[in-house]
């Protein structure tokens, strides 16, 4: 893979693009076996039992703006410990999210203040700063790239194999309930200011002074 030789040349593209290439070459279904979300490979953490992710939320990967990234999974409430908005805080501060699981928000905010001199009340972070970053990330994902486009609501789902019941182990038979999944997804959209299709609403964008983002989404026909 490092030298892009043989099969390594294909695998170096990552699980999603490699699966697409193999499908094209072999004319057979490969993508269903690629455990990814919006092109990003999912790590070691599953969701079926509800006990193998820190957030224990079936929507953890699906609505996250970083898709399969286990360090940025989404959850409700959006100001809780398992929230993606809290992960945005660690990303912004450039420190490992895993080091703060036992820390209260006020303690983390005090670190920020020591470095920047800015006070960071919890309600301002979760109600303004982090939400602003989230809308920008979501918009970038919706706009897509040169070889990938993601639909909002349709692609806020899970790899097909994640819907299958666990085949063995102490939680054999456990699976993700689709009705519960869709309900949580809808609740998350509302909580972060997205419409029923998973697109940031004009109201939230104007509130966060992101009128240029609103204009871009309208220009692209997403609003």
Structure description:
The protein is mainly α. The chain is 43% helix and 2% strand. The chain has helices at residues 7-11, 15-26, 84-93, 105-116, 122-143, 152-155, 178-192, 202-207, 211-219, and strands at residues 36-37, 40-41. Strand 1 (36-37) and strand 2 form a beta hairpin.
Which descriptor suits the 3D outline?
globular
Strand content: under 5%
Strand element count: 2
CATH class of the largest domain: Mainly Alpha
What is the helix/strand order?
HHEEHHHHHHH
CATH superfamily grouping of the largest domain:
Aldehyde Ferredoxin Oxidoreductase Protein, subunit A, domain 3
Main sheet characteristics: 2 strands, antiparallel
Query: What's the CATH architecture name of the largest domain?
Result: Orthogonal Bundle
Report the total helices: 9
CATH topology of the largest domain: Aldehyde Ferredoxin Oxidoreductase Protein, subunit A, domain 3
Q: Numbering strands along the chain, what is their spatial order in the largest sheet?
A: 1-2
Portion of residues in helices? 40-55%
Low confidence ranges? none
Q: Please tell me how large the radius of gyration is.
A: 19 Å
How far the N terminus sits from the C terminus, by CA atoms, comes to: 41 Å
Q: What is the number of domains?
A: 2
Structural class: mainly alpha
């Amino acid at each position: 893979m490092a030298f892009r030789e043989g099969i390594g040349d294909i695998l170096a593209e990552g699980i999603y693009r490699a699966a697409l290439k193999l499908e094209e070459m072999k004319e057979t279904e490969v993508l269903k076996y690629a455990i990814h979300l919006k092109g990003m490979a999912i790590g070691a953490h599953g969701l079926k039992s509800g006990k193998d992710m820190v957030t224990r939320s079936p929507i953890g990967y699906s609505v996250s703006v970083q898709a399969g990234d286990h360090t940025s999974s989404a959850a409700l409430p959006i100001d809780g410990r398992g929230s993606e908005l809290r992960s945005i805080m660690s990303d912004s501060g450039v420190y490992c999210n895993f080091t703060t699981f036992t820390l209260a928000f006020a303690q983390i905010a005090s670190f920020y203040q020591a470095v920047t001199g800015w006070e960071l009340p919890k309600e301002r972070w979760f109600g303004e700063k982090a939400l602003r970053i989230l809308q920008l990330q979501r918009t970038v994902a919706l706009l897509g790239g040169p070889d990938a486009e993601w639909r909002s609501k349709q692609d806020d789902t899970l790899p097909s194999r994640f819907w299958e019941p666990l085949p063995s182990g102490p939680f054999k038979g456990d699976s993700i309930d689709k009705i519960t999944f869709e309900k949580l997804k809808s609740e998350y959209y509302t909580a972060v200011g997205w419409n029923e299709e998973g697109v940031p609403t004009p109201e939230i964008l104007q509130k966060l002074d992101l009128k240029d983002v609103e204009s871009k989404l309208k220009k692209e026909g997403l609003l």
